[in-house]
Write a structure and sequence with these properties.
This protein has helices at residues 2-9, 12-28, 35-45, 52-76, 92-117, 121-130, 135-164, 173-203, 220-243, and strands at residues 81-85, 88-91. By secondary structure, the protein is mainly α.
């Protein structure tokens, strides 16, 4: 918990910039040898995780989608054949490409989870505002992050109502019709909720700006972290330049 508080003490603007630059470097990387240098940042951040259950749940969800890459890419990317599975040829290039995607995704997720996702959405939006991101994009991100939990509560209510009525999913038309109605109710309730929110904001004379009373203050700790970050990214640039 104390380590998590130390991360929270770092200016959100600085954490956002570091996370963005790190994600760009990792996403554009093509050489596996460089991932050892990227681990220098992501691995120590594992000790700053506050909610381990939430982290593991998010990591599992991310790797669940990567599982489909492991199923599809090794048999669709042409290259040197390693072995055959039924009629499909598993290629070395396909496995390497999928492995790179897996490493990149997990590194980016770990870094963003510790530096950004564990913070309150309002603090992240406030940091984006100070970084002069377009206002419409900031508002879109804020409302999305703010009302996903609200929609999730509506889904939980509908699911509980289905359980009270002893609904059990099967492979029949009644089940398909029920799930169709569930999706329709979610869309309808989301639309009605957005209408109420929009009218409430008009009554409060909302003009597209979220005013904040507590502003960020740059500290000596932020200066130290920013210097370390600059040195780290300069080393990466130098190594990549020599590699080229």
């Amino acid at each position: 918990m104390k380590l998590y508080r130390k991360i929270e003490e770092i200016d959100p603007r600085l954490r956002l910039v570091i996370s963005f630059l790190y994600s760009i470097f990792v996403a554009l990387e093509k050489l596996p040898v460089f991932f050892y240098y990227y681990l220098i940042l992501s691995v120590p951040l594992l000790f700053f995780i506050n909610n381990l259950k939430k982290f593991l749940k998010g990591l599992l969800a991310v790797n669940f989608f990567i599982l489909f890459c492991w199923i599809l890419l090794p048999i669709n990317i042409p290259g040197k054949e390693i072995f055959k599975l039924f009629r499909f040829s598993i290629t070395e290039e396909g496995i390497k490409y999928t492995f790179l995607i897996t490493i990149k995704t997990n590194l980016i997720f770990i870094t963003n989870f510790v530096l950004l996702f564990s913070s309150h959405p309002v603090r992240v939006v406030h940091a984006l505002h100070h970084l002069h991101i377009p206002r419409k994009l900031i508002n879109l991100l804020f409302f999305t992050s703010r009302y996903i939990p609200v929609i999730e509560k509506e889904i939980n209510k509908l699911e509980r109502a289905m359980k009270v009525r002893c609904f059990k999913p099967k492979t029949d038309m009644h089940t398909y019709r029920t799930f169709g109605n569930l999706v329709g109710q979610i869309i309808l309730r989301s639309y009605e909720r957005s209408e109420r929110i929009y009218k409430a904001m008009l009554l409060r004379s909302f003009s597209g700006i979220f005013w904040t009373y507590h502003h960020f203050k740059w500290s000596k700790k932020d200066t130290f972290v920013s210097i370390c970050g600059i040195i780290y990214f300069l080393i990466l640039i130098f190594l990549k330049w020599n590699q080229l």
